Every structure is written in structure tokens, then in C-alpha cells.
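User: Can you recover a sequence for this backbone? Please restate the input before giving your answer.

Assistant: Of course. Working from this structure:
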């Protein structure tokens, strides 16, 4: 009985100590803060950063380092390569969709203005319904175009990563190359494309076509350079001449890219057929 009576008092004392520690500086406990008892004293433990915040902090450090030294393979966390692949694919798909949308708007605007001019000359018989059908058809494929652009971008970038990984393992037999760090390697080499993609998306969103297309060609050029850097001969135990290694690497890399690019082209061509017809 005495022990049972002491327990509520101890609990009350602990709660009171926690309250005193929490309001020691006139401030309540912040979200994520805890109170620990050290040598019988209640101490407020600072809030720990969430896993989400830590992941993005590590990614930002990784990205800044990648902009300074793209070829450096310093490990800043196992999630950076995957996270960058998602961002790079999304931005690439959005940039492509923004350019397509701007081009579609210009085409529709040109067709509508032409039909309006014809209706002014020969009457509006059938031209109003034709213009409205074009506008409704264009709006109805917007989601399909968006989905196709994002999916094609994910496959497009994955093609480079997979081709680089297979080439380094099959031809150069690089023991340091893994499937996971292949994402990290290609992400670092193409990190400069992220700000260019953002500019491309913004310019395409306001209806520009020419300059965003030029930026998109620059992005593809950087992708090609990154892919070429990936298959540069590395130190290997294979005794074949490095020139022949490079030829085999280029052939294998080209075959893999051709197969995966054919899939991407099929996806985008199906969208274009739906757009035109």
C-alpha cells in the first residue's frame, strides 16, 4: 500500500519537473522536443531534424558539390542518386511538355485565325464548329501528353544510366561500379541541367518555343557528354587494348540506348498520332 501511494506522487513530481524544465525560459516545449531526466533533473532535449529534412539537406550538399566537381564521387548518402533521378526525370518531362504545349497553342491559334479569316470571306458555315472541335481536341489530350512526357523522360534518362552501368561492368569490368552508384554518377554529371530545365519550363509555360527548344538541345548535348564520360575507359584487369575496349563499349552502349530509345519513341509517337488525328 505505501508503494502504491508513492507512485502517483512520483508521477506528479515527474510531470511537475517536466513542466518546470519546459517553462524554464518562459517557452513551452516545441514540436519534436522531449524531456529527459539526467541525474534526477529534467532536461529539455532539442528537437531532432526529421528524416525528410535530413535527406533533402544531404541532397542539397550533394548537388552543390556536383555543380563544383561533377566527376567527384564523394558519397553524401545513398538516396541522392535516386532522388536526383526523380527530379531530373520530372523536370525533363515537364520541360518537354511545356515546349509541346507552347507549340500546340501556336498551331491551334494559327488554325483558328485562319478559319476566322475564311469565315469572314466565305461565311461561317462549318468553320465555327471546326474551330471549337480543334480546341476541345487539344484540351482533351493535355493529360495524355503530360503523362506520356513524364513517362518518356523517366525511360529516356534510365536508358543512359542502364547503358552506362552495363558498359562499365561488361566491358571495363569496373569493380567499383554498382547499379546504385550509376544513378549517382550520371546525376552528378548532368547536375548542371537542372537549372537549365527550370528555365526551359518557365519559358515554355509563357508560350515561347524557339529559345526553350535551343535550351532543350543544350540539355541533350550535356546528356550525351555525360554518357560519353561514363564509357571512357577505366583501369581494368581486362588485357584487351583500350582502343578495342572503347569500340566495344560504344557498340554495347549504342545497342542498349537504341532499344530503350525505341520504346520512348513509340510512346511519344503514339501521343503525336493522337494529337494529329
Amino acid at each position: 500500500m505505501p508503494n502504491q501511494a508513492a507512485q502517483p506522487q512520483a508521477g506528479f513530481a515527474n510531470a511537475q519537473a517536466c513542466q518546470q524544465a519546459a517553462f524554464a525560459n518562459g517557452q513551452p516545449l516545441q514540436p519534436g522536443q522531449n524531456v529527459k531526466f539526467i541525474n534526477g533533473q529534467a532536461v529539455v532535449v532539442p528537437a531532432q531534424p526529421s528524416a525528410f529534412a535530413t535527406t533533402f539537406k544531404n541532397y542539397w550538399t550533394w548537388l552543390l558539390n556536383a555543380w563544383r566537381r561533377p566527376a567527384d564521387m564523394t558519397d553524401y548518402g545513398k538516396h541522392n542518386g535516386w532522388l536526383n533521378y526523380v527530379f531530373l526525370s520530372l523536370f525533363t518531362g515537364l520541360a518537354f511538355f511545356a515546349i509541346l504545349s507552347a507549340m500546340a497553342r501556336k498551331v491551334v491559334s494559327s488554325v483558328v485565325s485562319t478559319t476566322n479569316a475564311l469565315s469572314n470571306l466565305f461565311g461561317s458555315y462549318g468553320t465555327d464548329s471546326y474551330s471549337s472541335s480543334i480546341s476541345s481536341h487539344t484540351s482533351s489530350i493535355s493529360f495524355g501528353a503530360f503523362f506520356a512526357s513524364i513517362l518518356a523522360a523517366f525511360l529516356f534518362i534510365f536508358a543512359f544510366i542502364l547503358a552506362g552501368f552495363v558498359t562499365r561492368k561488361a566491358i571495363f569490368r569496373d569493380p567499383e561500379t554498382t547499379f546504385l552508384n550509376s544513378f549517382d554518377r550520371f546525376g552528378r554529371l548532368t547536375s548542371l541541367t537542372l537549372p537549365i530545365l527550370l528555365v526551359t519550363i518557365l519559358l515554355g509555360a509563357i508560350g515561347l518555343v524557339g529559345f526553350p527548344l535551343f535550351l532543350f538541345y543544350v540539355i541533350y548535348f550535356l546528356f550525351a557528354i555525360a554518357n560519353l564520360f561514363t564509357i571512357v575507359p577505366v583501369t581494368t584487369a581486362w588485357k584487351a587494348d583500350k582502343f578495342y575496349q572503347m569500340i566495344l563499349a560504344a557498340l554495347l552502349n549504342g545497342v542498349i540506348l537504341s532499344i530503350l530509345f525505341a520504346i520512348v519513341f513509340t510512346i511519344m509517337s503514339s501521343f503525336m498520332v493522337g494529337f494529329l488525328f
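That completes the design. The longest strand covers residues 34-38.
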